[in-house]
Amino acid sequence: QVQLVESGGGPVQAGGSLRLSCAASGRTFSSYVMGWFRQAPGKEREFVAGISRSGRTADYADSLKNRFTISRDNARNTVNLQMNSLKPEDTAVYYCASALQDLGRRAEEYIYWGQGTRVTVSS
C-alpha cells in the first residue's frame, strides 16, 4: 500500500506563490505516475498536473501550464507542485495521487490519493 501526505497549503494573496509537497511512503515510488488534482467547493475534482515515472515528462491542464510546475524526486519519494501568480480561482483543496497506467488526466486512472491540502487565494 502507498500512503500519500500533502503539505504546503495555506492562505496566500493573489499574485503570490506556494510550493506544495507530497510525501509518499512505500518501496516502489518510482513505479508510479504521480499527479496533482484539485477540487473547489461545489465543483468536480479536476486535473492539475502529472509527471512520468522518471520525472522527464510532465503534463498540465491547459489553463495552468504557464503558472504551475510539477516535479518529483524519486530518491526522496516526493512530488512537488510549484504554483506561481496565484489567482482567487485557484482556491481549492489540492490532492496528490498515484497511478500505474501511463501518464493521464483522468482521476479514475489514479489508485492512491492523499487527504489533500487546502489553498486559499485572497484578492
Structure notes:
This protein is mainly beta and 123 residues long. The protein has no helices and eleven strands. It has strands at 3-7, 10-13, 18-25, 33-39, 46-51, 58-60, 68-73, 78-83, 92-99, 110-113, 117-122. Strands 2, 4, 5, 6, 9, 10 and 11 form a seven-stranded mixed sheet that branches. Strands 1-3-8-7 form a four-stranded antiparallel sheet, with no helix packed on it. It starts with a strand and ends with a strand.
Q: Got a strand count?
A: 11
Helix content: under 10%
- What is the multimeric organization of the chains shown? single chain
Main β-sheet description: 7 strands, mixed
Mean residue pLDDT: 96
Rg for CA atoms: 13 Å
Low-confidence stretches: none
Total helical segments: 0
Strand content: over 45%
SS-derived structural category:
mainly beta
